[in-house]
Structure formats: C-alpha cells, structure tokens
Design brief:
Distance between the termini: 37 Å
Number of helices: 9
Helix content: 40-55%
Radius of gyration: 18 Å
Largest sheet: 7 strands, mixed
Strand content: 15-25%
Shape: globular
Strand order of the largest sheet: 3-2-1-4-5-7-6
Number of strands: 7
C-alpha cells in the first residue's frame, strides 16, 4: 500500500468527523425563503413524529435532480415537504414533482411549504393514497428520477415500479437504507431490515442498474437505469 501524504491522513483520520462535515456541507446553500420553509417543514414533522431527510441527503437529492436535468420526478412519501423542496430546487424550472403519500394531512403541510418556498402551484402534483395503488397509474418511462421514502416493507415493489417508470438514464433513490446501523448489524433484525438487505442485494446485482450507496443521512441508495 502506498504511503499516505499528510493531507490524505487528515482526511481519512476521523471518519465520524468527515461524515459530520459532509452532512453539514449543504446547509444554508438554498435561498433564505427556501431555508425558512425547510425549517417550518422540519418543525411540523417533529410535532407529528415524522422523520425527514437530513441536510446531507437533501443536498444529494438536489444535486442528483440537477444532474438528471429532471423535468418529471416521482416521490414516494411526501412527508411535510422537506425532500420535495430539495428535489424541486434541483429540477428544471418547468419541472413537475409528483408526490404520493398515504396521509393527506401531510400533503397539506407540504403544499403550504412549497408555496412558502416560492414554488408555483403547478410545480407539484399531490396524489393521496397507498404508493402501490398509485404508481401503476403513472406513465411508463415518463420520469427522470424516482425518490422512495415510503414503507420499507414495500421497497422491492417500489424498485420494480421505478424501473418501469424511469426513462433510460433515469435515477432511482432510496432513503434510510442504513436503518440506524441495523442493516449491517449481525444480530437478529426485524422484517423491514431483512427487506432492506434484499433491496441492497437486488440493486447491486441488477444488470439494468448502475448503483452507488451514499453515506449521507441514514444512507441513500442510488442507481441509474441503463440505456
């Protein structure tokens, strides 16, 4: 193994510090209006006991949406709108986010948040309902990115639907795949963690996908659909 130079030793010396730095790197990079809306969203989520994407995960989603030059994005799990704000900021100015959630009340929060973040009403389409009932109604190959932050027990079904929904070169992303460290814990784990392990294996082994696992938030699994 080659000798590490001083700067490389500093970078690799403390992984926890590195991860914390990476997580905070995207903070404050949106305009003041959007940052205020994000704060409002996170507070609503805290009050409702809903977990939101972290700053690092949000920054990654914004970057990925911009990389894909996304005009059409599907989101499974609206929450209070945190991830949606990041996605909309990465999308094209004429892009439309289609977001699905089982709880209409959460989507009401998200609508208000998007409005307060400065997005026109026609930038988002809100569909209440169970994702596996809604997704089959969406157009084949009609999406540039699919973001999955829904029921972990349905993640493999989300993957199958995403492959149908995405155009060649489109991206699928799954939030929370570390499951607070349980995914790699050798102890006995609940069914949802076992399902996440199946998802990770399926994405890595799929000949239709080019995968990467990003260590932001609680783990962001991403993959590009091959042409």
């Amino acid at each position: 193994m080659r000798q590490l130079r001083g700067q490389e030793r500093a970078i690799t010396g403390n992984r926890q510090t590195n991860l914390a730095f990476a997580e905070a790197y995207g903070a404050g990079t949106l305009d003041e209006t959007a940052e205020a809306a994000l704060g409002w969203c996170r507070e609503r989520a805290r009050q409702a006991g809903i977990r939101t994407v972290t700053t690092g995960t949000g920054a990654a989603l914004r970057m990925l949406a911009a990389t894909a030059d996304a005009k059409a994005v599907a989101e499974i799990g609206t929450g209070t709108g945190v991830s949606g704000i990041y996605l909309l900021h990465g999308m094209r100015p004429d892009g439309v986010l289609t977001t699905v959630d089982l709880e209409p009340e959460r989507q009401t929060f998200a609508k208000q948040a998007f409005r307060e973040a400065g997005f026109a009403g026609n930038r988002a389409r809100f569909i209440p309902g169970r994702a596996l009932d809604v997704l089959p109604r969406l157009a084949d190959g009609g999406y540039d990115l699919v973001f999955c932050d829904g029921d972990l027990m349905e993640c493999l079904e989300y993957l199958a639907e995403s492959l149908r929904l995405l155009r060649p070169g489109g991206l699928v992303c799954f939030a929370g795949v570390f499951a607070d460290g349980r995914t790699v814990d050798s102890g006995v784990q609940p069914a949802e963690v076992l399902r996440l392990r199946e998802l990770l294996r399926a994405v890595r082994e799929s000949s239709a996908l080019v995968p990467a696992l990003l260590p932001v938030g609680d783990g962001l699994l991403c993959a590009v659909k091959r042409a």
